[in-house]
Structures are given as C-alpha cells and as structure tokens.
Design a protein that fits this description.
The complex is a heterotrimer of chains A (about 350), B (about 500) and C (about 325).
Chain A lengths: L1 H4 L4 H23 L4 H13 L16 H25 L7 H18 L4 H30 L3 H22 L20 H6 L8 H18 L1 H11 L1 H6 L4 H28 L11 H11 L4 H23 L6 H14 L1 H13 L2
Helix pairs in contact in A: 2-15, 3-4, 3-14, 4-9, 4-12, 4-13, 4-14, 5-6, 5-7, 5-12, 5-13, 6-7, 6-12, 9-10, 9-14, 10-12, 13-14, 13-15, 14-15
Chain B lengths: L2 E12 L2 E12 L3 E5 L6 H8 L7 E6 L2 E3 L4 H6 L2 E4 L11 H6 L13 H14 L15 H14 L4 E5 L7 H16 L3 E6 L2 H7 L2 E6 L2 E7 L5 H9 L17 E11 L5 E11 L2 E6 L6 H9 L6 E6 L2 E2 L5 H7 L1 E4 L3 H5 L6 H5 L10 E2 L2 E2 L1 H15 L16 H14 L4 E5 L7 H16 L3 E6 L2 H7 L2 E6 L2 E7 L5 H8 L9
Parallel strand pairs in B: 3-8, 3-9, 6-7, 7-8, 13-20, 13-21, 16-19, 19-20
Antiparallel strand pairs in B: 1-2, 1-4, 4-5, 9-10, 11-12, 11-14, 14-15, 17-18, 21-22
Helix pairs in contact in B: 13-14, 14-15
Chain C lengths: L1 H30 L6 H19 L6 H26 L4 H24 L25 H5 L5 H19 L1 H11 L1 H6 L4 H27 L11 H11 L4 H20 L4 H4 L3 H18 L20
Helix pairs in contact in C: 1-6, 1-7, 1-9, 1-10, 1-11, 2-3, 2-4, 2-9, 2-10, 3-4, 3-9, 6-7, 10-11, 10-13, 11-13
The chains are: A mainly alpha (about 350), B alpha/beta (about 500), C mainly alpha (about 325).
Chain lengths: ~350, ~500, ~325
C-alpha cells in the first residue's frame, strides 16, 4: 500500500490506476448493455498471446502465433504516433495532427516507391526518408503558424488532418496504376514485408518495421535526454519565458519540435504502407492511429520507454477488435476504453488527491 | 465595547504552513488600525478570513459585539465589511460602473441591467467622498490611482462600514499617497473604521491610530502608534534590532560600461514607455533606477537585456552598439541579469538546480560538446556554486527548483549570473518578497560585485534599498530620467519629489 | 439570379449547425473553460436525435422537434464530464476535451451496434424537410433567399443568435459570465460562485452543441454515422475565434464557413470550377479555416482567463 501512495511513484501508479479504471468502466458499460465483459478480456488475451482457451481439450491448437504477430503489427504505428505526441508534449505543444501527418507520410513513401526508379536499397531508404520528411513538413506548418502568428495549434492541426485525408486520397488515385481504392502493390524489395517473419507467425503480417520502431524510440530518448537541443526543448516546454530570458530561440524550437513530432507520425504512415499492407490505400475516414497516439503519450508519461509500453497496451486493444467483432461484441468498446483511460489520466489531479488522502489517513 | 471588529484566536492553516497561529485583532469604531508585518507574516491571510475568502480552523469573529460566521464575501458584505485588494480585482474591459455593480446589478424591464441608474448612484458616492471617478470609463483606460478609487467605490456602493486596505500605496505616486491618506481621514470622519495592511512604517506613523504586529503567523503585540518609534515597530516586525544601513566603502567608479543614447521604446500596449532616455553606468559603481512602478523601468530593463526591442536610440555596451543583438549575444558579451520575476524569467521551476545553474551556459564547452550534453561538467559546476553561494535545498544539485524557498531560489539565480563575471550586472527588484536575512545577503553580494570592478544597474521600488545600496540614483518618470543624484547627498523627500515628476533643482 | 438566391439559402442551411454550436462554445469560453469537445458533443447529440427519431416518428407528427430536445439533453449530459474534470479537478482542458471527442466516437457507434445491430443508426423517414413558405416567399429579394426551400431550423439558429446577444450583454447573468472569463478572482470577491458560473457555461455549451449535432443529422442525412459530423465541431470553434467570441461576429464567421462548404455543389455548373477535383472542394473549408485563423490571429484575444483552472488560493 505504501508503494501506491508514495508520491515518487505517481508516474507509474497513476497511469496504472487510469488503465484499471478504464477497463472497469468499459466492463460496466458492457454489462449495462447486455454484453459479457469476459469476452473483452478473452479477446485481449487471444489478440496478444494467441491463446484461445476455448480450444483447450479439442483437437485444434490453442496457441496461434498469428495473433501475437498481428498484435505487434498493430502496435508499431501506435508506438510511433505515441512518440510523436510525446515529443510535442515535451515542448509544451499538443500534436493532435498525428493523424494527418501519418497520412502524408504514407502517401509520400508509396509515391516514391512507385514513381522513382533505381536500385532497391536506395529506393527503400528514399521511401523512408520521404515519409519522415512529409510528416515533418505537415508538422512544421502548425508549429510555424503557432510560433509566428500565435494561432491555436489544436484547430490548425485538426484542419490539416482533414485536408490531408482529402488531398492524399486524390493524389493516391492519380498515381499510375491505382484503382479507386488502392495503388499498385509495391515491388517485393521495397517493403518491410518478410516471408521469414510471416512463416514464423503462421502467416501474420509481421514485418521488419520493428527495427525502425526501435531506432525511433532510441532516437527520441537520445535527443530529449542527451542533446543540447533536447535541453532547450524541455526548457521551452516547461517555461517559455525563462527559456527566452536564457537566450533560447523559443519560436524556432517550437516549430522544429512540431516538425520532429510530425516526422515520427509520418514514419508511422510509412510503416503501414511499407509493412502492414505493401500498397497505398484510399481511406474514407481516419483510422485513429493518431488519436491512439495521444492516449499512448498521456499514459506513457511522454517518455520513450513509456510510449513503447503504452503503445503495446493500446495496440493490444486494437488487435482485440476484430476478434471481438467476430464473436459478436461491438468492437467500438475498445475505443470507449481507450478514451476512458485518457479521461482518467486527465483526472490525475483528482486521483492524486485521493492518493494523498489515503496516505494522510494512516 | 467600542470594538467594531474582533478576531479572536484565529488559526488558519494551509498544507504545510500555519499562516495564522492564534492571532487576535481588535479594531475600535472610528479608528485607523494598521496591521504590520513582513511578507509572509500572515496579514493578507488574516484579512481574507475576515472578508470571507477563507474559513479559519480555529477562533471566532465578532462584529459590533455579536459573534458571526463569515462563510463568503457576500456575508462579509452584508456585515458591512469591504476590502480594497493589493492586486486589484477589476475586469479590465468593463466600465467602472459594471465593475462596481457586479453581483448587485439594478434591474429594469425584461430583467435587463439598469446601467443608467447604477451610473447615477456611482457618481453620487464619488462626489460625496471626493473620489473624482468617471462612471463610464473603461478600467484599462484609467490610471492606477483611479483604479484604486474604483475599488474604494465598490465598498462604499455596498454600504461598507469597515474598510480593509491591503498594501494600498505600493502602486501610487507620492501625490496620490497623500490623497489616499486624505480619503481615509474623510472616511473616518463619516463614521467608518479602517484596517490598513502594510509594511511601510512611515505611512503607519502618518495615518494610523493603533497598530497590530504579526511575525511568521503569530501575533506579537498591539501598540499605540503615537507613542512608538519606527525603530521599535521594526524590531517587533523582524524580531531583532534592524539596521537600515548597508556597510560599504565609497565607490571608485571607472570607465563607462553602459551608455543609453536617446533611447525610445514602447510598452506591451504599443504606447511609448521610454522617451529619449539618456543614462551612463560606470564600472565599479551601483547605479539605481528609481521610480514609481509603471514609469518605464520595467521596459528599460527589457530593452537593455534584449527581451524587447527599442523603437529608436542606441544602447552602447563597452563601446559597442548592442540594440540589434539577440539576448544570447548580449549575454555572451558580458551582461548578467537577475530578473524581476524569478519564477517567470529566472528559473525553470520543473528543472533541477543543476539544470537551472546551467541555463545560460549549457551550449558552451565544457558543459556540452557538438550538441551533446556533458552531465559530469554540469554536476561539478552546480556543486561548486551551491557551496560557494550557500544555496540550500533538499537534495542538492538534483533538487527541483520548485521545492526551494524564495531566498534560495534567488541565491541560485545570483550565483548563476555572478559566476560568469559579467561586466554589467542588472538586478531588477532583487529582494522582492524575501526575508530580512536574504535581503542582507543579496545587498552584500551586490556591493561585492561592485568592488570587483563591475557595473551594477539596480532597479528597485523600495526606498530603503534605493538610498542605502546605491552609489548614484537615477530617477525615472514617464519614461525619462528626470534627475541623477549621489545617494549620500540626497534624501527621501528629494527622491520622492523627482519620482512624482518635478525635475531636480526645480520647485514643485 | 436564381443561382444567387439558392446560394444564399444553401449557405444559411450549411451554416446553421456551425452557428448553433459556436454559440455553445461562446458560453463555455466566456466563462473561462476552453471546450474543444464540441465535435464529440455534436456526435452524441446527433446520435441521440437520430435514434430517438427512429422510435418517436411512429407516434408523433412533431417528432423531429422532440428529437432535437433529446439531442440537447444528451449533449448537456456528456458536457458534465468535461465540466467536472475542468472545474472540480482542474484538469488540462484540452486533454479533457480530446478524451470526450474520442469517447463520443466510440460510444455512439457502440450503442448503434447494440440498438440497431450495425455501425450506424437505422434510417428515419421524417427528418426536417426543405419547405417553401407561401406568402413570405413573395417578398422581393429576401423572400426567395429566406423562405424558399429552407429548413425551419435555420430560423432557430438566427433567433438563438439574437437571444444569446441579449443574454450576454443585457442581463446580469451575462455580465457575471463575462466577468468570470476575464477575472475570476474579481467575481469571487463579489461573492459570486465561479464554479457555478463555469458549470452553467459548460452545460450550456453542451446543450447548444448537442442541438447543433442534432440539427445536422436531421437535416443533412437520414441516419447517424461515424462521419456525420466530420469536423464541423472544430470549424465551429474556429468560427468562434474568427468571430471574436461575440454573437454577431460568430454569425458572420459561420456564414463564411458555411459558404465554403457549398462550393462543391456548384462546381459542376461552372466550367472554371469544374476543373478542380472533388477532393479539392472537400478540403476547401478546412484550408480556408486555417487561412482565416492566420489572417485574423493578431486580433484574436479571447477571454483573459480562459483555459486557466481557477485557483482560489493564488493571489
């Protein structure tokens, strides 16, 4: 009990409580609407571990490695968008634009892959770079507008999300060979896809993108904690007045930070196009990777490791959705739970007060 | 009894601190009763309890002999208690009348506010007490002195009998202070009672009948003002003998380090704040810019340090024009800045001490190289400064600045700025809000820097500090320097006259 | 000339949900609480209205108006979450608002699945219909603009603008609300409860946004889907900023954004417009919003205390 109420551990305890409460409320909602919450947890278990308890005692295997494979596939872009939002938070900015940055990154990668000729290895690198750059530009725009004109970055990024959705849809269809719903498939040397990994996990879509994710998380940790640039970003995020007083270029740092955040989100789009699918897709609406990133950043406490761990949590929720749907549980309960977790993290002041009271009562 | 207000054995606690510890205050009808104490002594808290903003943990309150519970400002208002706050509680883009009637709006048909009727009543009261307030003016357009009179009107509109003034003179010109004293005497004449919260002994002597002294939340005593000297009151306030003098040798000024030529700059509202200002600061002297708050001294510091831009004129530092340079360029040339607001500009509260101490130097070797931070160098630097400047904190270098006391936070800032050996050290209100021990330390350090041959530009609003610490005093009024005098050849009256606009050598 | 008339009418129609929601945003922000959950509340209101209409239209002829009422109540209830977090718990208002937007998306589709077995509501048959008002339509010029082929909800929006202006600037409640958003300490010192004022502000914003979403679904569509609101809640927020938090200001701004939404309808009629792809017109309102915010950024100073949790102890 002492561990829970000790103020030093709030960083871990509060997200843990928020997660617990989120699932609790989700379960209650399920009960109130006639659904069985157990189905939620078995779906989660199956989605993450691949273990189907219902198959025990039958001739069918109870462990299917395809599920953990798919789980990692879902988690990877969410970790990246989580890094994106976390990075912006460190500088005191709220990046709700990860959704749009992801879309432009995806488009840029696929466009380079289809249009540019050359040795595979070079094109591969160019595709990744294109995704990073495109996302970076899409993030830089609101950062710059905020710095220069003090425009509300929340409204601008959301407008850019919709703009990205429509514009990338249009340009995707204009690429040579595209149908109304997708582009041509990328050549096999230009994706992260791997027969080896696929075979390992019973035909899941697991791909080499996880190396990119690890590198991204490491770069985040390095920039924030080891560089002077990271020092400046943190100073600006905590107190832009003191940062200005100390001679730091506050506006430039803000804009750059949003650009880097956009780059991480763009990379998420690259991963989806080059890893999960192997081609570009026309979307009718957002797939919520960006919004999941917000949940990841808040729960993970805006650190690199936290984003990775929280990314896996919300990836699990996403992976459980198709399983739930096929067993008759409305998949959107997962979105409800995600949003409730964010809500409870937002309530952290309230949770802190309760914990302090518990501590004082002893 | 003839007590109109009795606060008996009041105890008010906040997490971690007893702001009021068994305090008793008794005010007679028709008197001006001063409440004296240093910053943090508990005066404002006590009055907030009286005004219904806080509930005390212990103690009781009697108004006109009857015990009452004051649960919110409405109850206080009904009992006839009104408060003029230190930081005005006025909505800037509302008119005078709208501010006064907030919460008690007179109504006409369809529930609409009857603004004409309200304005009439405001005018009537204003005339009755000689307050000279325009009911239709917007708060953002009127002077500070008039804003204060609007606060007074707020109380009188609600028929207050007991008027509390919280540090009313901090923002007034000497002329306005005299007017305020007159208004207070008028109020007493009309049968009101006044409680005056202040730490200014001279004002207590000028207008108060009795005085209750608080120190660190405790009630020290209540005295008759006439029979008590300022020194005796100061001793009660601080707890020991207080010397208002600062020990220092006479200055030995050398070359001009900073020269301001025909400087012009605007304030945040794009109005001229500095008008053709000329000034020189020499190495080896402490020059103090003195003036009433709001006469351009804030903007002056901002343009010298680079936080804001000039509109015209030159800033020459060691022979080089710097008005076009960035903040960092000026810092690197040798300017140090102890800012007025240590929480806003001076520190990143969520950073540790060592990070804050490296705030101006993190980008240079040895603290970083090629963009990568060198944590050992930063730690070593921090440990050294903590020791040399006696900066106290819970965990040393890794303590978060937020958890340090005000005095130690200021010491850390001074350590950081002084250690770079700046040729010009700018100190803006360096002792604001600090206790006497910290104030003495800071004054000693400033003199030490001056003796090492630095130029020190001090900006202060406290007359004692201005007179005792500086070598020369430059008085700023409406954006211009109206007089420069040697500190040991002038006195408070002369400074006061200059601060309210009369140029040196001219009769008022 | 016909085209001009129908353009005005159509602009009014598309602006209506923006106007209504922006008024709600105004009440919240004027009290000092930033509310970016307008989008999510619109979704909840739209869903509630659509669902209740499906059931009510069997029994009542004025069911659409009842459904609007349900939308208002649903919006108010959801906004209580934001109110509690922002006011009682001093949470970050932007995070709280974002959480509600996420929640709304999940909750509405989930409930649709439970109630209707699909990821959208069933279609209703008697939403609002375009009406032409005989007699009034014969008034020269404005007759054909305001009374031909128009939804009655447009008049509702315009009336609400006038009412909100009256409340905000003529009634004591309005004075106190505005003061709360500018200087809550002053309000507190006059004995008015800052908490109460802010709760009213946020709940009002919930009512209006719920109404706005309900109007949108009941006029533009025959069912609620996840894409029903598609960002209009944020456009309303931009209209509020663009309109300087004033009733008639936001009316003008909303009309501007409404107009930008109808250009795609006319693109096929004019060759020089037709050369642009459909997606261009879809993106246009959002791009224009950004440009508008940039152009008007310097002047956009909102209520001084908006976004700051009220801390009684700080002086």
């Amino acid at each position: 009990m002492g561990y829970i109420t000790d103020r030093k551990n709030h960083r871990i305890v509060i997200p843990a409580i928020a997660i617990f409460l989120g699932f609790l409320v989700g379960s209650i909602i399920m009960l109130l609407t006639g659904e069985n919450p157990i189905a939620l947890f078995t779906s989660l278990g199956r989605g993450v571990l691949g273990i189907n308890l219902g198959n025990i005692g039958t001739s069918r295997s109870f462990f299917n490695p395809r599920y953990p494979g798919e789980f990692v596939v879902f988690a990877m872009p969410i970790i990246l968008t989580g890094l994106s939002v976390s990075f912006a938070f460190r500088t005191g900015l709220f990046n709700i634009g990860a959704e749009g940055q992801l879309l432009v990154g995806a488009f840029a990668s696929v466009a380079v892959g289809i249009l540019v000729d050359g040795p595979n290895f070079i094109i591969l690198l160019l595709m990744i770079l294109a995704g990073i750059l495109a996302g970076g530009i899409w993030g830089f725009i609101p950062g710059y507008l905020k710095a220069k004109f003090n425009v509300h970055e929340v409204v601008v990024t959301i407008m850019l999300n919709y703009t990205a959705l429509f514009l990338t849809n249009y340009f995707l269809v204009e690429l040579p060979g595209s149908t109304n719903s997708k582009t041509v498939e990328l050549e096999s040397g230009l994706t992260f896809q791997s027969e080896f990994l696929s075979d390992l996990t019973n035909s899941s879509r697991l791909h080499w993108g996880f190396i990119v994710v690890i590198l991204a998380a490491l770069s985040f940790w390095f920039i924030i904690n080891k560089t002077t640039f990271g020092f400046e970003l943190k100073a600006v995020g905590h107190n832009p007045f003191a940062a200005k007083y100390a001679g730091m270029k506050v506006e430039l740092n803000s804009a750059l930070s949003m650009a880097i955040a956009g780059a991480y989100a763009g990379l998420a789009g690259t991963l989806i196009v080059m890893g999960t699918f192997g081609y570009g897709r026309v979307l009718s609406s957002f797939e919520n990777y960006g919004f999941d990133g917000i949940a990841v950043a808040l729960v993970g406490g805006t650190s690199a490791l936290g984003s990775v761990l929280a990314g896996f949590l919300f990836g699990a929720l996403k992976a459980a959705q198709p399983i739930m749907q096929s067993s008759g549980v409305p998949r959107d309960i997962a979105i409800i739970i995600s949003s409730m977790i964010v809500l409870f993290v937002a309530m952290q002041n309230g949770i802190k007060i309760v914990l302090e009271k518990m501590k004082g009562a002893k | 009894m003839e007590y109109v207000v009795e606060m008996l054995n009041i105890t008010k606690e906040f997490p971690g601190i007893k702001a009021n510890d068994n305090v008793t205050l008794q005010v007679k009808k028709g008197e001006v009763h001063a409440l004296l104490g240093e910053n943090g002594a508990g005066k404002s808290t006590l009055m907030s309890v009286l005004f219904g903003l806080y509930r005390p943990e212990e103690g009781k309150i009697k108004i006109k002999g009857e015990e009452v519970e004051i649960s919110n400002p409405n109850v206080a208002n009904d009992l006839g208690i009104g408060m003029v706050h230190q930081h005005f509680q006025l909505v800037e883009n509302f008119t005078v009348t709208e501010n006064i009637i907030l919460g008690q709006e007179p109504k006409k048909s369809f529930g609409r506010i009857d603004i004409e009727k309200a304005a009439e009543k405001v005018k009537k009261i204003s005339d009755q007490y000689g307050l000279k307030v325009d009911p239709h003016a917007k708060i953002e357009d009127i002077t500070v002195g008039m804003q204060q009179r609007v606060e007074i009107l707020k109380m009188l509109y609600r028929n207050a009998e007991i008027l509390i003034f919280d540090e009313p003179t901090a923002v007034l010109t000497p002329q306005e202070i005299i007017e305020l004293m007159g208004i207070m005497k008028d109020l007493i004449h009309e049968g009101k009672s006044v409680i005056l919260i202040t730490h200014k002994l001279k004002e207590i002597k000028a207008v108060a009948d009795r005085c209750t002294v608080l120190r660190r939340g405790k009630h020290i005593g209540t005295i008759d003002v006439e029979g008590t000297t300022e020194e005796e009151m100061a001793e009660m306030m601080v707890g020991r003998e207080v010397s208002f003098e600062v020990e220092k040798e006479p200055a030995d000024p050398k070359d001009v380090v900073l020269k301001l030529e025909n400087l012009c700059a605007d304030n945040k509202r794009k109005l001229p704040a500095i008008k053709n200002l000329n000034l020189e600061v020499h190495a080896g002297e402490i020059l103090c810019v003195a003036g009433i708050d709001g006469n351009g001294q804030k903007e002056l510091i901002e343009v010298i340090t680079g936080l804001e831009q000039t509109t015209s004129g030159k800033i020459i530092f060691n022979g080089k024009e710097i008005q076009g340079l960035s903040i960092r360029e000026r810092t690197l040339l040798g300017i140090g800045h102890i800012p007025e607001d240590r929480h806003k500009h001076g520190l990143v509260l969520d950073f540790t001490i060592e990070q804050n101490l490296a705030l101006q130097t993190y980008f240079m070797e040895p603290y970083s190289k090629n963009g990568i931070i060198n944590p050992e160098a930063i730690r070593e630097h921090s440990e050294r400064l903590i020791k040399e400047f006696d900066v106290r904190s819970g965990k040393g270098s890794t303590t978060k600045a937020r958890s340090m006391s005000g005095g130690n936070q200021q010491k850390a800032i001074i350590a950081r700025e002084v250690e770079r050996s700046p040729k010009l050290l700018i100190a803006a209100q360096p002792t604001r809000g600090l206790d006497v021990g910290a104030i003495e330390y800071i004054h000693e350090r400033l003199v030490e820097e001056r003796d090492k041959g630095r130029a020190v530009l001090l900006m202060s609003l406290e007359m004692e500090e201005v007179l005792n610490v500086s070598d020369r005093i430059a008085v700023i009024y409406e954006g211009e320097i109206v007089g420069i005098v040697d500190a040991d050849k002038t006195n408070e009256n002369e400074i006061g006259l200059m601060m309210s606009g009369s140029k040196k050598g001219m009769n008022n | 000339m016909d085209v001009i008339y129908s353009m005005v009418t159509l602009t009014l129609i598309f602006s209506t949900p923006i106007i209504i929601t922006a008024i709600g945003g105004m009440f919240s922000e004027r009290s000092g609480i930033v509310n970016i959950a307008l989008e999510g509340i619109m979704m909840v209101g739209g869903f509630a209205a659509a669902t209740s209409l499906v059931f009510l239209e069997k029994s009542f002829s004025f069911a659409p108006w009842l459904a609007l009422g349900v939308g208002i109540i649903a919006g108010a209830l959801i906004s209580l979450i934001h109110a509690y977090l922002s006011i009682n718990l001093s949470s970050d208002q932007v995070i709280s608002g974002t959480a509600i937007n996420l929640l709304a998306g999940g909750l509405t589709v989930y409930l649709a699945q439970i109630i209707f077995g699909q990821q959208r509501t069933e279609t209703f048959k008697s939403g609002f219909i375009k009406t032409t008002y005989d007699g009034l339509v014969d008034i020269p010029i404005i007759g054909r603009m305001f009374f031909e082929n128009i939804y009655p909800t447009v008049y509702l929006a315009l009336i609400l603008v006038v009412i909100s202006w009256f409340v905000l600037y003529k009634l004591p409640f309005g004075l106190r609300l505005r003061a709360t958003g500018e200087h809550p300490h002053a309000v507190d010192s006059m004995g008015i409860s800052v908490y109460k004022m802010r709760y009213i502000g946020v709940v009002l914003s919930g009512c209006f946004a719920g109404l706005g979403g309900a109007v949108m679904v009941l006029t533009f569509d025959t069912q609620y889907t996840i894409s029903s609101i598609h960002g209009v809640g944020f456009i309303a927020l931009a209209a509020l900023i663009f309109g300087k938090w004033k009733p008639f200001g936001l009316l003008g701004a909303s009309l501007f954004f409404g107009f930008s939404q109808i250009l795609s309808v006319y693109s096929t009629s004019y060759p020089w417009l037709a050369q642009f792809p459909q997606e261009f017109f879809k993106a246009l309102p959002y791009v224009l919003t950004i440009i508008a915010l940039v152009v008007f950024s310097d002047k956009s100073v909102g209520p001084k205390a908006a976004g700051e949790p009220y801390d009684k102890g700080s002086r």
